[in-house]
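Notebook entry, structure prediction.
Reason for the run: the old model in the group folder had no record of what sequence produced it. Starting over properly, with the input documented here first.
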Amino acid sequence: MGEFKSGFMISGSHKQYEEKSPLNYSDSVRDGKVEDIRVFPSAVALQPKKDLGLKSTESYAQDSVEQHVSAEVVGGLREQSKQKRCKILAVANQKGGVGKTTTTLTLGASLARMGKKVLLVDLDPHACTSIHLKLYPGEQTTTLYDLFALENGDFSELWKRLAIPVGIPGISAAPGHIRLSELEFDLRDRTNKGMILNESLHHVSDKYDYILLDCPPHVGILLVNALVACDLLIIPIQTDFLALHGLKLLFDTIRTLNKVLPEPVRYRALPTMFDRRARACRRVLDLMRHKMGNAMFDTVVGVDTRFREASAMGCSIYDIDPETQGARAYDYLAEEVMNLW
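New structure, fully documented this time:
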């Protein structure tokens, strides 16, 4: 991947995207010392065996992108993006449990507290964001599955039913559904299926300042749609050794998309679940800062039990204690995000 420039944008020629991603490493502790080692998403990806038909992560990412996005139809994306008033933020990491949903909800709530109009889009079939907001998928007449299933229809009319105001002032949400997991099969014969979300969001972007996409923890049609549509990819990374593993496939997907998109995918990493008392957490954070540099937010989200309380109560952490450590961290993050443009 190309070198990170101007704070948050990957720039350079397509040839540069063939370089290794900045997170193609992990943190290893041996005899009290920190060492850099390569990251591989799994043992089989370390050395693919032709006789078993196994693919490298880069090959898998390329296949996934080629199935969903056609280079012939992305030329208009640049002009469309210039016309957008709002900014679209995708929150993604192929590892689960690193704070994607918490980041989507809390960053959205913080932006709303600052007077911004926010739309949360729950692309995860598990629908954790929707459930947190008490938009239970089984009770909704319209979900994001309907958006992806719509062909030659009116996205504007669909969004009127899909974007639902929630209990947090300034925020609306588009609920997910378990049937989102069926899209790979249901849309198998549809061309340019990686462009669906991008096309649909242009029908609603003038109503919001920020649209946040809560992405599923795997590479596929939903993640590709989010990366194509977003202005910025936020990658929550738990400050834990094991959390660094498996990121290679995400960066392989970004690099492959950059060969097709008129502009490269912009991204920044967000350290989460940081416990300053744990030496291992401090080492991982130092390693991330050293390797990623300006490709990482200054904000570090620490461990805060109020996030769990907010989830149980179906509210934001600001409704419990706006001065708690976690709440202040996402306020800092919101300020960083707004200052990027």
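Summary: The first strand starts at residue 4 and ends at 5.
The old model has been moved to the deprecated folder.
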